[in-house]
Amino acid sequence: MADWATISSLATAGGTLMLALATFTSIRSSNRTARASERALLISNRPLLVSSHIYDPEEKIRFRDDRWVKVAGAHAYAAATEDSIYFVISLRNAGNGPAVLDRWNVTVSEEGSAHREAPDTTNYRRLTRDLYIGAADTGLWQGAIRDTGDPDFAALTQAIADHDTISIDIQYSDQDGGQHIVSRFALTYRDKDDRLTSTVRHWHLDSTDPR
Question: Which domain holds residue 90?
């Protein structure tokens, strides 16, 4: 004679297991959908700075000591005086969201340009004010070193005088302060204080390297 109590218990257990599996599958699917939606939202707001095009409009900028600089598309500016060093780069935002420029670093050579590891941004220099470049728009970055006792002052002054290539890292984020990216640019001597700029590499600090 069939043990209907046992059969009923097994049927209930089987149904519960199927329900649990269905719930697990649904949650996993929902999580994947949520992650995909979150990624799509981030990409829609992600900036990406590159060198501007040669035909992009000229940019004009003023430093706080009333020094005015004009930089053409795809160009940069590097100059040194007895007490200050000035840098300007013409940029284009190739991303979908506005870029908020925050920190920077400069090196005399391109030795680090071949390194794939993300740079250590701990000692990057803070901009005295935020610079913004809108999505699909052009703009510029500017930086200055005004302390003659700065450990890089003498080397950078000599590099500019010798027309050496200079590498500049710019750290920036989206408008919400997320998606931190470092982009490296090489400044190659052209004439006097005028330099050509090229994009070397990008590092996504908050996510997996796309490469």
Answer: 47-204
